[in-house]
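Journal club side-thread
Mid-discussion, someone asked how the predicted structure for our own chain would compare to the paper's figures. Pasting it here so we can look after the session.
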Amino acid sequence: MKTKLKLTTFLLAGLAFSANAQKTTITKAALPASAQTFLKTHFAGQEPSYIIKDKETFSTDYKVQFANNIEIEFDAKGNWEEVDGNHTSIPAAIVPKTIASYVKANFANTTVTKISKDYNGYEVDISNGLELEFNSKGSFLRIDN
């Protein structure tokens, strides 16, 4: 009985240790190629303040931050998951056209300050403080408070 308890304790401790994320600072050249292309396309001439590779047990993510506080998160393959302007406008070319058209038509004089995407769709923050939700095709779903 004591042996099983020791073994269980040892396994749980090992599992907890392996679940810890390993965060390391990397260079732009160490990012996946698609993330490098995204940065060259939308942030040409800007050098990141830092880039962090966050390696967890089952996933790897990258976080890039610029001096103007814009933050970008990429998945392991270098696909963007979130672009956060931290209450300032993000490059308009990042926002899918259907979403940009909806925002322009329904919320004149606002800009997109944050966009995140996943398999369900997009969440978009605009400069008037509203958060909008869209499906994966860019169709408006609702305002989220």
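Post-session note: The helical segments are 2-19, 33-42, 97-106.
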